[in-house]
Amino acid sequence: MQIVTTHVNSDFDALASMVAASFLYPGVTRMVPSQVQPAVREFLTVHWDLLQLKPRRAIDPAAVERLIVTDTGSWERLDDLRMLAERADLETIVWDHHMAPGSIRAGELHREEVGATVTLLLERIQEMDRAFAPMHATLFLLGIYDDTGGLTYPSTTARDARMTAYLLENGADLNVVAAYLDSALDERHLELFNRMLSDSEQFEIEGVHLGLCVQDADKGLNNLARVVSKFQEIKGLDVAFGIFPITANKTVVVGRGNPRLFDVGALVRQLGGGGHPGAGSAVLKAPAAEARARVRALIAQAEPESERVSDLMSPVRLALAPQDSLREAAGRLRDSHRSVLLVLDDQGGVLGALGEEQLAKVRDDAGWEHPVSALMRRDLDVVTPERTTREALRIMTRADVGVLPVMEDGRVVGEITRAAIMLSLYDL
């Protein structure tokens, strides 16, 4: 078994370089440390299945024959793998941009002074002409931007910039990158931001989660768009509007949103401003209360671009029965390249779901002969075909499950997976 992993408290460069390494070492298992940074955890919540990742608890160190490590060169920073340090038969490969020597005595060491470790791997991927999806390009760009401050840190090199261009040419989505990375805010921005967090209105239209807040802003305070973007990110909103009275009869409106779901630019143009589907702003010669009322009315009139569950659901072609053995279930998951399957009774009713997380609880060979019903996840949420995919994704995220049964008139008419939603999101 060969695995690729990275350091605990993983940032985006750690995750990106780990995934990038798998394009250079076919068949490698991607092992995510137990502890990752909050923004990375949020990213993994919706990308886990598509990236085909494994948790630390699913890996048996004794079975590892080749270890690939990215963004660190020290055993101490890995997730409970120190026992491998004494293995003379272990092949170790390290990719890192930290120039200080580490405790791992790698048989193959790739260490160069660039802004991000993923840059080193991308250069090799480009050289070998390995193909990757826009989703991967976006993650790789997150890695570069996270460690270089969007190419602004002194550690940034021309090589990082060249790989940034390479990723943009291959479909990296800057909107997604911006949503996950922090923007620099001074004390006035932070004070405004905190007030927005504590006093805002949130509501939902056709599965699109919107937020609206009215707050005084210091005259001459620039970069209000950054504050609104950060507000949108922290609140987990699809669309956010900030309304900032500058004088008694002059108000600034700033909008940020997911252009796939809501055309912010179209709304602010009706206020006399400008923008594009994902962002816009306007200055109104009106008091804040009037500006808020106009924005609220325009939101109510808008028609969000809402993809439905019926657009992405598929028939339940493969399911488990409660009496199936866990060994049989593991084989079906492996053969179907699925991470989770529904469990149905003889009449096609939903009993629950079983996936890799539950199978990881099997501790001995005898345990594999237990029935699926012993470990399956019960009380599974369901969705109807007319629900939006955004609603379905939120349910999956809240319940930490990768598949939901689709019910209509009391019967199962299909299933929708997190992977299907993410593939649609990235136009794959």
Automatic annotation (TrEMBL):
GO function terms (MF aspect): metal ion binding; nucleotide binding; nucleotidyltransferase activity; RNA binding
Domain (CBS): residue spans on this chain: 313-372, 376-428
Cofactor(s) named in the record: Mg(2+)
Superkingdom of origin organism: Bacteria
PROSITE patterns assigned: CBS (PS51371)
Biological process annotations from GO: tRNA processing
Keywords tagged on the record: CBS domain, Magnesium, Metal-binding, Nucleotide-binding, Nucleotidyltransferase, RNA-binding, Transferase, tRNA processing
A Pfam family hit: DHH
Family the entry assigns: Belongs to the tRNA nucleotidyltransferase/poly(A) polymerase family.
Protein name: CBS domain containing protein
